[in-house]
Amino acid sequence: MIAFSFLLSLNASIAIAHPAKEYDAVVKQLKTQYRAKKVNLVFMWLARAAVSVIRPAGVKSFSLTVFQNLTFSANSIDNEMQATMRQAYGPEWSSIFHVRSRTGEQAYMYMKDDGANVRFVLVTIEKEQAAIIRATFSPDKLIEFLNDPKIMGISLNDPPPATVKPAETDKTDNSK
After folding, report:
1. Which of 58, 122, 132, 155 is the most exposed place for a label (fewest CB within 10 A)?
2. H-run or E-run covering 150
3. How many whole angstroms separate alpha carbon 108 and alpha carbon 167?
4. pLDDT bucket at 129, cuts 50 / 70 / 90
5. Is the predicted pLDDT of residue 174 greater than 70, yes or no?
6. Where are the beta strands (DSSP E) in 46-128?
7. What is the tens place of the pLDDT at every residue in 35-75?
8. CA angle at residue 95 from 94 to 100, to 5 degrees?
9. For the chain, how long is the longest CA-to-CA vector?
10. Structural domain boundaries of the chain?
11. Looking at residue 77, what is its pLDDT?
12. pLDDT score recorded for residue 162
């Protein structure tokens, strides 16, 4: 019970430490304008708590929110989402990319350098579904990880153990 309380409070502190006003604006747009329903991701709190403790590849925090049942006009959603993203993510954020496919799928990525950390958000919209991924990571730790990838002390660069082949038997004829 104590461990559960600790993880719950850790998860709450992660949410508080990660300002969400930009995220809230995008969520509001998806929920109100497009009547999207948020999908419950059962063990997301556990994944977020684990990442905040282990910090793989320099990732300090992340969240993933998935929506379904979006209803929108294919003709207007691109302009509406561009306006929402520009308003939510102010001049301190850099628009990394905005892509719209011929079939209507869209993706937006914004990034912000906070000195020792980088924050990014990726919003994707596809047919009746949308997802928002946001994360904070240390670029120095990411570079360190890329140079020598280790997760929980296990190097991802180490070759797998060699398989030992049984010794070949001597096939010479000694019957003389």
Report:
1. 155
2. strand 150-151
3. 58
4. very high
5. no
6. 59-68, 94-100, 106-113, 118-126
7. 999 988 777 767 667 766 767 777 788 888 999 999 888 78
8. 175
9. 94
10. 7-152
11. 86
12. 58
